[in-house]
């Protein structure tokens, strides 16, 4: 049976701050009851991930972002065929557009949790600034998910 909430953290754990998606999932696994929450991790979003959105009541995407204006942002998503639509990696909005073309079910509410990041070098660890931002984002999303029925 599919769990009603999906939290999808994506990024490359070997590329410094790009690891925030998978690291946030690790935090949730340690701090939340996951009986209604599925955690999914991958290096990037791909067309096939549209199938992971089926039968959900809520979907949250988590990613590192260089252009994030605050330590993190939490924004609603809408489907859009953007420049990533035809590439090997999709944006969350493009993935939602793919989901809509399947036409099987209405799109659940979807959000993007972007964590401000600055260092993406291969083999580097999380930057000090991003680590602090990630800690804030973890506390925020855990509290948000605990409030859900």
TrEMBL record:
UniProt keywords, alphabetically: Hydrolase, Protease
InterPro entries to which the protein is assigned, alphabetical: Pept_HybD-like_dom_sf (IPR023430), Peptidase_A31 (IPR000671)
GO molecular function, one term: peptidase activity
Keyword Chloroplast recorded: no
Database matches in Gene3D superfamilies: HybD-like
GO-annotated biological processes: proteolysis
Keyword flag Repeat: no
NCBIfam families (UniProt xref): hydrog_prot
Name of the protein this chain belongs to: Hydrogenase maturation protease
């Amino acid at each position: 049976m599919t769990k009603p909430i999906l939290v999808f953290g994506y990024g490359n754990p070997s590329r410094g701050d790009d690891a925030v998606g998978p690291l946030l999932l690790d935090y949730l696994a340690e701090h939340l009851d996951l009986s209604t929450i599925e955690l999914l991790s991958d290096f990037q979003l791909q067309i096939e991930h549209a199938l992971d959105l089926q039968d959900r009541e809520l979907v949250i995407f988590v990613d590192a972002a260089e252009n994030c204006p605050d330590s993190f942002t939490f924004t609603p998503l809408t489907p859009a065929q953007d420049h990533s639509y035809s590439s090997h990696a999709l944006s969350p909005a493009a993935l939602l557009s793919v989901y809509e073309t399947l036409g099987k079910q209405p799109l659940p509410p979807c959000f993007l949790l972007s964590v401000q990041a600055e260092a993406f070098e291969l083999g580097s660890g999380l930057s000090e600034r991003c680590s602090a931002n990630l800690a804030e984002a973890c506390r925020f999303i855990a509290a948000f998910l605990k409030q859900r029925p």
